Amino acid sequence: MNGRTHIFENIDALYAALEKQWQLAAHAAIADHGAFHVALAGGSTPRNFYKKLAQQSTVDASCWHKTHLYFGDERCVPQDHPDSNYRMAKETLLSVAPLLPEHVHAMFSADFSVEQNVAQYERLLHDTLPLDAGGYPVFDLVLLGMGDDGHTASLFPDTAILHESVKPVAAQFVQKLNAWRMSLTFPAINAASHVAILVVGDAKAEVLADIFSAEQDAVVRYPVQQVNPVGQLDWYLDTAAAHLLSVQD
Ligand code: 6PG
Fold first, then answer.
1. What CATH number is attached to the domain comprising 63?
2. Distance CA 94, CA 39 (A)
3. Which ligand 1 atom is the nearest neighbour of the CA of 204?
4. Lowest-confidence region among 74-83, 148-157, 212-221, 237-246
């Protein structure tokens, strides 16, 4: 298993540690290229982190003014739909933190087709993110979650998007959800300077134990195992999700 593992007794301790990494990554990125480009995770785990970050954090206004927020994945629904990751982020972070509106980059708009949204987001990433030596867009920080089937972002088991080897963003109809999703692809995630994967709760303990016990060159069983960034990877776990791991932090 790649990366550093951090295990916390409770989610507040996990959030506090993640906030420190956010701040460190923000200061490093702004010092390096004058902006901080972050892709947000969806789902329920990061919801209260975003709320805390917006309301209580010590991230200063000058940092927020240089922060660009993107999405790691999105449900292809209107931005005010209960399932929308954009809506969740807006309720908790986007409408509270002193971000510049032009620095908030929703991934999906119901005003356009899925294909148009994908093409527009790909262009946005190339136009706004720093590019690596190969011309590939580089996020400063990508936040991810993990489902109990080992999916991450909207990279679900047995879907074609897992094999996208060039495009930074793509769409995928997810049979098990009977829904269209957009997602950053592994090339985009793995080009990032920092990736933080947040996994909490007992329901994910077995998959996590499978992943952490897998031999380095073992067959990849879960999509999240394909997260292997050029930069730093950190796993943020609570003790419930980590209780089957052999090596405790
Ligand atoms: C999404 C997420 C997805 C999520 C996992 C974990 O759009 O749902 O990006 O990858 O991170 O499903 O979700 P929970 O945090 O709700 O367990």
1. 3.40.50.1360
2. 13
3. 17
4. 212-221
Task: Confirm whether 53 is domain-assigned.
Answer: yes
Task: Give the model confidence (pLDDT) of 178-197 as tens digits.
Answer: 999 999 999 999 999 999 99
Residue 201 falls inside a structural domain:
yes
- Give the pair of three-digit tokens for residue 211: 């992943």
Q: Which atom of ligand 1 is nearest to the CA of 47?
A: 15
Q: How far apart are CA 178 and CA 203, in angstroms?
A: 22
In the three-class reduction of DSSP (H, G, I as helix; E, B as strand; rest coil), residue 147 is classed as coil
Closest CA to 8 of 45, 44, 43, 38: 45
- DSSP 8-state secondary structure symbol assigned to residue 152: B
Q: 3: closest CA among 163, 146, 170?
A: 146
- Ligand 1 lined by 239 (C-beta under 6 Å): no
> To which residue do tokens 């796993």 refer?
235
Report CA(43)–ligand 1 centroid distance (Å).
Answer: 4
Tokens matching residue 175: 């049979």
For the question of whether the overall pTM of this predicted structure is more than 0.85, the answer is yes
* Full residue range of the structural domain in which residue 28 is found: 4-181+197-218
Distance CA 142, CA 228 (A): 12
